[in-house]
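ugh ok fine here u go
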Amino acid sequence: MTGRAARGPLALALDASTYTGTVAVMRGAAVLATAETAMRGEREERLMPAVAAAITAAGVTVRDLEAVACGSGPGSFTSLRIAAAIAKGIAVARDAPLYARSSLVLVVTGAEPPLPDGVYLPTLDAMRGEVYAAPVTIAGGRVIDEGATVRLSADVLERFARDLGGRVVGPGRAVVRWPHARGFAREARWWEELAPVDLTAWEPDYGRLAEAQVRWEAAHGRPLGGA
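structure:
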């Protein structure tokens, strides 16, 4: 096997499921450059400049990109929308496939230093005293099993983890890790094992409705967009 199929595509990966946005430029499973930026409390959008910085640091251009990958949430509504818009825009402009991966998985695979093989329960803040969580098992550096995302009250999280037999990881946990776009590259041949999303239909998994939508629907007594 030679060429692109052997080494993997030159890809841009993004994740903005938390208030920190991360970027990675990858050649298959090799990370060429990364960047991070604040997503909250800034006067201007910072993720696109971080994308540009990572691409420049990798010594390539947008025209060289052959694929795009994006963390799909759950997480911060606005940040996820920004990352998805950038990812879809570049994918459309380059006529390149877009791959999506749960940001909870990227907590585990994006960890630095890498986590040892085992069962993990990555978590992300769901607000209102709740967390998003999904069991993830890694072996040989690969995700070999991934459970469904659940929303749990924080007080039952540790019990859920004990029943699962896994370690809780995530922001503010005993094992502190954050989702990172480089997590795509930690999975062998991710570009073959993941199916590209439908660019016309794909949206991130926000985990819950935005507060503005909840208030609108409560005030109008019907779903937003409904008849």
